[in-house]
């Protein structure tokens, strides 16, 4: 009786949720128009957001949903492992952001398809499943939607959660709506968590965790050509290079304020040696997390009085003389990490959860991170514990710590070695996850190839 009452309560909550989601559709269209003004990718195939698809579909593909850029890169790692085991695999990739869709287009092969995942209303989700008829769905990391989960369960489409993570902050939000979210998590056919802590939180949310396999991003191989190009450019520079990697709104302004104050104090250059207080000219490289903010960040730097050179204007000769370089390109993070002696971790100096530090470690670039890394909590804690990253409390401390590292080559060398060992020691999630997905689908008698 209690279980039936729980299901009834969940059904009522989902109906209310569906009414809200349907009512919000005009707001979604308005938001897409605004985002599309800065990022035209948001204006592509808008009707797909509402479950209307013009492209023909071939049923039976493995559907992988990767909402944004980071999840899509993780999906690429998993997809490579799946294709190694099943070269004839056909996939349907869905996304939620323009950067995710652009990155995902690079993963497609003949016979694959790509689309937007629809807004989570019952009719849009039903049209999506009826059109594509996937053999199974793999959600990357966090994307569990109530109507999508319910429709997949009713249509007999196994829905799996790979590279799964759930922060304490997200868990608190989930538990506030547990009459809605618990059924969604409980309907998942399998959940493979990144860490034991994630597994425990996912269990509290209602999921049945099938295994703890680690983070797929440890299995990423940095683009060797880009990494070497960055190192070659760094070798030509007499000055050290400090990078602000995947910076977020509000963080760049604080960094520029600190650098401007240092420049005023030093009178020549704007980075100072932490050991003796003498001026030590350093190049700063800012790489904003979101491409729609490239122009804004460049303008902020110019308004602060710095000479700016943007990556898009560097040419084959590499970065020109300037106070600040702006990394305004996509898909070149290995180049930037190769160019940098040390990196500040974006998203960690404001309560935004931090960005992925694993790629920096794999490229041999030491990381200085702020206090807010809840989106990558265990990776950040392990990197710090293993000596591959430095934790600070404020942006100002972060700048000083980065400057201290570039002023002390021996200390920096130790952190580089530790970061490289950290990146190598935690590989293997891709193989485990790919094997688990294919084994589960074989047990259910599902074929993923035509």
Automatic annotation (TrEMBL):
Catalytic activity, reaction form: lipid IVA (E. coli) + CMP-3-deoxy-beta-D-manno-octulosonate = alpha-Kdo-(2->6)-lipid IVA (E. coli) + CMP + H(+)
A Pfam family of this chain? Glycos_transf_N
Q: Where is the protein situated, by its record's location annotation? A: Cell membrane
Q: Which InterPro entries match?
A: Glycos_transf_N, Glycos_transf_N_sf, Kdotransferase
Q: Which residues form the 3-deoxy-D-manno-octulosonic-acid transferase N-terminal domain?
A: 46-220
Q: Which GO terms describe its cellular component?
A: plasma membrane
Q: Which GO terms describe its biological process?
A: lipid A biosynthetic process; lipopolysaccharide core region biosynthetic process
Residues the record annotates as the site (Transition state stabilizer) are: 141, 217
Q: In which pathway does it act?
A: Bacterial outer membrane biogenesis; LPS core biosynthesis
Record's keyword annotation contains Nucleus: no
Mind telling me which PANTHER family this protein's record contains? 3-DEOXY-D-MANNO-OCTULOSONIC ACID TRANSFERASE, MITOCHONDRIAL-RELATED, 3-DEOXY-MANNO-OCTULOSONATE CYTIDYLYLTRANSFERASE
Family of this protein: Belongs to the glycosyltransferase group 1 family.
Task: Name it.
Answer: 3-deoxy-D-manno-octulosonic acid transferase
Q: What is the lineage of its organism?
A: Bacteria, Pseudomonadati, Pseudomonadota, Betaproteobacteria, Burkholderiales
């Amino acid at each position: 009786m209690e279980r039936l009452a729980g299901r009834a309560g969940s059904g009522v909550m989902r109906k209310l949720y569906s009414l809200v989601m349907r009512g919000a559709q005009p707001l979604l269209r308005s938001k897409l128009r605004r985002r599309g003004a800065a990022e035209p990718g948001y204006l592509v195939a808008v009707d797909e957001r509402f479950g209307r698809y013009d492209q023909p579909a071939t049923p039976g593909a493995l559907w992988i949903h990767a909402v944004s850029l980071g999840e899509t890169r993780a999906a690429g790692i998993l997809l490579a492992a799946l294709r190694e085991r099943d070269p004839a695999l056909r996939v349907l990739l869905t996304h939620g952001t323009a950067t995710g869709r652009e990155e995902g287009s690079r993963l497609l092969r003949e016979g694959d398809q790509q689309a937007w995942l629809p807004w989570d209303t019952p009719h849009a989700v039903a049209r999506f499943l009826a059109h594509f008829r996937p053999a199974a769905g793999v959600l990357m990391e966090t994307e569990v939607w109530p109507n999508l989960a319910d429709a997949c369960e009713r249509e007999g489409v196994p829905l799996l959660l790979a590279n799964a993570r759930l922060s304490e902050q997200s868990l608190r939000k989930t538990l506030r709506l547990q009459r809605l979210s618990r059924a969604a998590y409980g309907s998942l056919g399998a959940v493979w968590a990144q860490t034991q802590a994630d597994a425990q939180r996912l269990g509290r949310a209602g999921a049945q965790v099938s295994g703890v396999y680690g983070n797929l991003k440890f299995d990423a191989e940095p683009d060797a050509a880009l990494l070497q190009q960055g190192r070659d450019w760094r070798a030509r520079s007499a000055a050290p290079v400090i990078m602000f990697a995947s910076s977020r709104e509000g963080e760049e302004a604080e960094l520029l304020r600190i650098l401007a104050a240092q420049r005023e104090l030093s009178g020549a250059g704007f980075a100072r040696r932490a050991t003796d207080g003498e001026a030590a000219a350093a190049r700063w490289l800012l790489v904003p997390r979101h491409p729609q903010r490239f122009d804004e960040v460049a303008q902020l730097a110019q308004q602060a009085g710095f000479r700016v050179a943007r990556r898009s204007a560097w040419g084959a000769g590499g970065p020109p003389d300037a106070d600040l370089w702006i990394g305004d390109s996509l898909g070149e993070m290995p180049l930037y990490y190769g160019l940098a002696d040390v990196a500040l971790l974006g998203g960690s100096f404001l309560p935004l959860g931090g960005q992925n530090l694993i790629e920096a470690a794999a490229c041999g670039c030491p990381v200085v991170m702020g206090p807010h890394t809840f989106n990558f909590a265990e990776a950040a804690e392990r990197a710090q514990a293993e000596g591959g990253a430095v934790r600070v409390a404020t942006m100002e401390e972060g700048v000083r710590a980065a400057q201290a590292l570039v002023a002390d080559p021996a200390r920096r060398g130790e952190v580089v070695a530790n970061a490289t060992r950290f990146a190598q020691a935690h590989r293997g999630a891709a193989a485990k996850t790919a094997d688990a997905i294919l084994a589960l689908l074989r047990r259910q008698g599902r074929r993923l190839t035509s």
